[in-house]
Structure formats: C-alpha cells, structure tokens
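Blinded run. Sample ID left blank on purpose so nobody reads anything into the name before looking at the predicted structure. Input follows.
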Amino acid sequence: MKKKFIVILLLAIIYFTGSTLIDAGTFKVVENKFDGKVLRIYNNMAGPEDLDVDEENGLIFISSSDRRLIKEGKESPNDGIYLLPLDVAAEPSKLPTTLEGPFHPHGISFFKKEDKSYLFAVNHTQKGDFVEAFQFENQQLKHLATYEDPMMCCPNDLVAVDKDKFYVTNDHGNKEGVWRVLEDYLKIPSSYLLYYDGHMFSKAYEELNYANGVDVSNDGRKLYLTHTTGRELLTFDRNPKSGFLEIRNTLKLGTGVDNINVDKDGNIWVAAHPKLFSFVEHANNAKKKSPSQIMKITPHGQDAFGVDEIYTNNGEEISGSSAVVSYNGQIFVGAVFENKLLHANLN
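Blinded prediction complete.
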C-alpha cells in the first residue's frame, strides 16, 4: 500500500510539473513573424508598460517606470506619464503633473467626458499602492484625487468608466511572501477585479489567476479582462448604471496575456508573453530575452471571436511585450522592463 501511494504521488508530481511547464509555454518555439514594417523604436523611457490613446487628437499616453532600479531600492526620478503626439515627428516627452509625492505609474486609462480629458493611473510607492486621477489640460496632468483601499493590495491595470468610477485589477490576493509565490506556481485563483462606484470599492469578480489587463467596449456594455496564468480573455456583460458584471464568454488564448486595448472599431488588441518562465528570467536578468506576442481579437456577434496573431518576436527586437495600441494602420508596443516602445506600420 505504501509503495502504491508513493507511485501515485510521484505520478501526480510529474503530471503537475509537466502541465505547468506546458501551460507556461516552456516548449514553445517562438519565431519572428510580422506582416508589416517596424518604423522605429523609441528608447528614451524606462519600462513603457502600458499605453492608451486619444484617437481624436492623435496622442498616445505612456506609463513609464524603471522597475529594475526600483527593485534595487533606488529612486527613479524619470518615472511618469509620457506623451507621444502622432501628427509631428517627435520624441515622447514626460508630462508635468501637480501630483505631490512619488509617482511610479503602472496601468493607465484615458477617458473623455463633456469635452474634458482624464487620465487614471495605478501608482506604486513605498507608502502603498494607489489610483491617481488627473485632468489632462494644456499639456499637463492636473491631479484631482487619490484613491486607496485595503482590498487594493496589488493593483495592476484599470479602466475608467466615468470621471470618478473605474475598475482595477489586483493581480494577486497576497501582497508578498510565500503565499504570493504559491498563487503563481500552483495557479491558485486568488486574484480579483475591483470596482469603484464613486463612493466605495467592491469586488466585481473573483477567483482569477493573475488578473491583468482590463478594458470596456466602446458602448460600455462589455468589459474585457485577461488573467495571465489563466491564459484567457474573459468577456462580461456590464450594466453601465450599476457597474454590475455578468460573465458571458471565456476565450482560451494559450498564452500569458497582459494588457488589452479596444480600438475605435471595437477590436481588442492584446499583448502577451508566450513563454512565461522566460519572462520571469527576463524580469530578474536584463540579459535574458523574453519573447513578445501581439494579437488582434475581433468580436463576431455576442459570443464568437476571430483571433489574429499580428506580431511575434523571439525577444531580440523587443522583450516582454506588455501593451499595444492601434492607430490608423499603425501599432505601438510597450514592454515591462526594456527602454523600448516599438512603432510599426501594418500591411
């Protein structure tokens, strides 16, 4: 009986290890593929992890943080929101802000209402994690409010749905320690999505494997959410008045999905990490490359989607792709750690 138990235990360990390696894309061969032309790579920002676009005015907002410097316990004074105007040949430039104190942005969301422009940003500081709300006016970010809550332990990305309402993903249920590590490697669904209704935070959806990117459809009636180790895109029916969500569709993508952006035509653009353990190595060592992947997901009716792989790279051109925006036949791709923002034309 004891030998039988040991054999069963060993088989279970082998199965779990093999399943984890396969799910993480360890055995994938990532080839360079792109039906387009890379125009240039901007290098003047550290870790342009998230992007959003003001399509009406041709502006791209870029979230920049030097995560490697922060990990070393050093200050990164060049962190902030950068702006790239698309109607002129210009470099991204850091926007001045009236926010007092440290600003190390992560996920961002651009929102317009009544001819006013707003930008929301997750902000990681030594004092805690916050959501900052700004009004974008006269090439400046005017700070409006800081939001915090004990449930917001590990904010990653967010999407604004009003000037004082937003959803924000918590990529872990534990801020640090062994339980946080176990969440990742045992795929324990402890991550969740929060909703701020203008007065208080509440959990909008729970039991996710590393909740990451979030965005809403152009009419605000659908919410899209990625969970990275779950390797899926979730679609929710959303009540615009109450913010209530009801799960509608689960689209398996088989890759470590990161941030998402919905374009003016309703297409969902997704950046991903096809080899998750390579990304972990890249996070710990800048010399290690992590493959990049960009997908365009087109909704067809209520529950059907077309999935097109637009760009894959072995990590030499850009490592650890984390966000992509589409604008007039062009794409812009950001990365978590590298000082690279890729600009390309689509054929």
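Unblinding after everyone has recorded impressions. The two ends are 64 Å apart (CA to CA).
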